[in-house]
Amino acid sequence: MQTNTLDSPTITVSGPAEPVEVARLRAAVSDWVDDVVPVSAERRADILLATDEAMSNCADHAYQDRRDPGSMSVEVTYHHDAARLTVCVTDDGAWVEPAPRTSTALRGRGITLMNALADDVTIDGRLDGTSVYLRFSAARDVLG
Question: What is the C-alpha to C-alpha distance for residues 33 and 26, in angstroms, rounded to an integer?
């Protein structure tokens, strides 16, 4: 679903928390960012990779104790006046505290990567779900 206002166009997409669905949702977000957000190719890649990490974490961890995958939703809003992009990835699963990562671990870098790519990351982990907020100050790479 896409909502367009002059100041803050928004897209909301959702589906089952499964890897194949992560790819579909990422493609929808990618197309929307291309159409709406004036950023460089590098900043666009940062936005999509951080969003992908948040969705992948949801697919991998939120519903570990269930047979069937639950749902996840992604809402992306571009605030024209502030040249800021906000991404919120939400699920209804259980928050799983990240395990300590060893230097040789091949996985477990999603939150670190999100923090490196976004200007601000907030993770609200609850027993009834998790919301990951990624904020990007797109202004620093706005195309002229």
Answer: 10
pTM confidence score: 0.85
Q: Which CATH class is domain 2-141?
A: alpha beta
Q: Which of 137, 140, 132, 136 is nearest to 53 (CA)?
A: 132
In this predicted model, what pLDDT tens digit does every residue of 5-63 receive, in sequence order?
567 899 999 999 998 999 999 999 999 999 999 999 999 999 999 999 999 998 888 88
- Beta bridge pairs of residue 134: 87, 121
